[in-house]
Amino acid sequence: MAYETIIVEIEDHVCTIKLNRPDALNALNSQLLKELASALTDADRNDKVRAIVLTGSQKAFAAGADIKEMSEKSFVEMYLTDFFGSEHEAVQKVRKPIIAAVAGYALGGGCELAMMCDFIIAGDNAKFGQPEINLGVIAGIGGTQRLTRFVGKSKSMDMHLTGRFMDAEEAERSGLVSRVVPAKSLMEEAMNAAGKIAEKSTLSTMAAKEAVNRAYETTLAEGILFEKRLFHSLFSTEDQKEGMAAFQEKRTAQFRDK
Ligand code: HXC
């Protein structure tokens, strides 16, 4: 499929998706979110892809949902079309690891999109925020729930109620991002991280993602049981035999996703 608002490249088992509406600071409109959902679904199904990197420009990962597209909509339209509901679900359904490489603004829906990814690597110029309150609305694709889980109630309330931005240093200190790197080397760092993931067996990276995400949905005892069942199940794979043999033979494992 030819895309107009994103650029997709696949190289060395890593699919890079770049949001590409520079004139609107990558504001998320319906077209972009549909294209993104489609590209992510394709990458998830593509045997050649083992990791995904989602990024924007140096100035903006995404400055939020497209205000110009939304401003005149009625409740009935928003409700009947389940505005951005299906695209949100498509991102959540991706089973392969997704890294958000964030430089510049990640605001509103942009911050929410970054938080839907599995972890965030931030450029030192990154700015995160949920400024929807300034527009007379609130976050609509998970911001109140996910940001609260990342940074705790007090800071999440502060962000959602005042609309202030958080810089990269504060975002790392608060647990929103996994690491901060110089903005100019953001893609290199994100591709290195994705490359590390792509060296592993997709069977175990998918299982790790599934198990970590379970932590948000269940009790500790059930989550630990879920993890143990997945751990045991990986002993049915050729990649487990290969990984453990390679360790003992002091060589690099060659995983084949089998
Ligand atoms: C539509 C946007 C946009 C947005 C920026 N632009 N953000 N267009 N929707 N969210 C456009 C501007 O209108 C402008 O185009 C161009 O991008 C450059 O933006 P400027 O404002 O001129 O840039 P700058 O002065 O550098 O300020 C950057 C900024 C500011 C601080 C990021 O643009 C800003 O505050 N943007 C809105 C951020 C926001 O409120 N996000 C939350 C949206 S609601 P023109 O053609 O006018 O020059 C949301 C809800 C999620 O996300 C729920 C989903 C269901």
In terms of structural class, how would the helical and strand content be classed?
alpha/beta
Question: Total helix count?
Answer: 12
Element pattern in H and E? EEHEEHHHEEHEEHHEHEHHHH
Lateral arrangement of strands in the main beta sheet: 1-2-3-5-7-10
Name the helicity range: 40-55%
Family: Belongs to the enoyl-CoA hydratase/isomerase family.
Enzyme class: lyase
Keywords: Fatty acid metabolism, Lipid metabolism, Lyase
EC number: 4.2.1.17
How would you describe this protein?
- The chain has 258 residues and is α/β, with parallel strands linked by helices.
- It folds into two domains: 4-196, 2-enoyl-CoA Hydratase, Chain A, domain 1 (Alpha-Beta Complex), CATH 3.90.226; 200-247, Lyase 2-enoyl-coa Hydratase, Chain  A, domain 2.
- Helix content is 46%, strand content 16%.
- It is built from twelve helices and ten strands.
- The chain has helices spanning 30-45, 67-70, 75-80, 85-93, 109-116, 143-151, 153-162, 168-173, 186-198, 202-214, 220-233, 238-248, and strands at 6-11, 14-19, 51-55, 60-62, 98-102, 105-107, 119-123, 127-129, 165-167, 179-181.
- The strands form two sheets. The protein has a six-stranded mixed sheet, with helices on both faces. A four-stranded mixed sheet has the order 4-6-8-9.
- Strand 2 (14-19), helix 1 (30-45) and strand 3 form a beta-alpha-beta unit.
- Helix 10 runs antiparallel to helix 11.
- The two termini are 29 Å apart.
- 36% of the residues are buried.
- The protein binds hexanoyl-coenzyme A.
